[in-house]
Amino acid sequence: MILLLVAKRILIAFFTLLLVSLVVFSITSLLPGDAAQELLGQSATPEIVAELREQLGLNQPGHIRYLVWLKGLLSGDPGISMVSDMPVRDIIGQRLPKSLMLAGLTAAVSVPLALLIGILSAMYRDSRLDRSLNIVTLSMIAVPEFLVATIAVIVFAVQLRWLPSITIVSPDATFGELARAFAMPVMTLCFVVVAQMARMTRAAVINQLDSPYVEMAILKGARPTRIALRHAFPNAIGPVVNAIALSLSYLLGGAIIVETIFNYPGIASLMVNAVTSRDMPLLQACAMIFSGAYLMMVLVADIVAIVSNPKLRHR
């Protein structure tokens, strides 16, 4: 039963990604402007522009261009950048590890912090601590990340001069230099994702704390910490992992503002540059990476929810 449900989820994710590829290609093809004109400049003659369009294959029908692009994408060759004339996979290969590093550091900080806040709020619900944490998390959700990043730069880089305003890391940087460089981007991203994860964790744990088996544990004299960590939290792991996956899926695509403000050379800022220069192969590849990462996180959450379901696990 479990293997059948997991296989079904994987199949659905595959077809969803295929549909997303069609949407991405169609939308990027409808963007205003002409890639050939952007490459040659406004002074180029119509004849030269038409010749370049022919070389780039822009004159082919849309469905032919989509099939050629999809074939290259599946084979690991998303094409050649129209601006830099380099393979798109090489350009992305230089930027993707940096984005993954930023996302990994943010996850390493935000997940334990969000779980701690969510579990504490659930254990002491309706108390002064719970109300205070709810106010803090609601305030964090209400503040956009560009405002958090701007305030962080003004306070920590301009006024106090504790942290650099631009995130530039050399290959031989020490741990202290890495910590100072990533402090503000990680803090800004955590400000957004921690609040969402904490509130969803609180709701999932509270739902388990209202269960009959928890009442039985209370009658047996179990301590609140043991009840929350040994009884309620393991049974709430499915919704909690789903909350973590949905929040962390934001880190690649949602880091566009953070990478732009801190001038961080990640894949999100690369996508912004691709939109500006009408570099369609690069833009489409970046969009597919974001979509694939989101679907992968959701798929992992679904699989964990299926495996952690006691009704399915004991069949």
Please name the defining characteristics of this protein:
MetI-like fold; globular
Helix and strand topology:
Layout: H1 2-29, H2 35-40, H3 46-56, H4 62-74, H5 88-123, H6 128-142, H7 145-159, H8 175-209, H9 212-219, H10 224-235, H11 237-248, H12 250-253, H13 256-261, H14 267-277, H15 280-307, H16 310-313
- Overall pLDDT: 81
Derived from helix and strand composition plus strand pairing, the structural class reads: mainly alpha
CATH superfamily: MetI-like
Could you name the CATH topology?
MetI-like fold
Strand composition percent: under 5%
Largest sheet: none
Distance between the termini: 7 Å
Question: Helices and strands, in N-to-C order?
Answer: HHHHHHHHHHHHHHHH
How does this structure look, described?
This protein is mostly helical and 315 residues long. It has one domain (91-313): Orthogonal Bundle (MetI-like fold), CATH 1.10.3720.10. It contains 16 helices and no strands. The chain has helices at residues 2-29, 35-40, 46-56, 62-74, 88-123, 128-142, 145-159, 175-209, 212-219, 224-235, 237-248, 250-253, 256-261, 267-277, 280-307, 310-313. The longest helix is centred in the middle third of the chain and has 36 residues, at 88-123. The radius of gyration is 24 Å and the shape is globular.
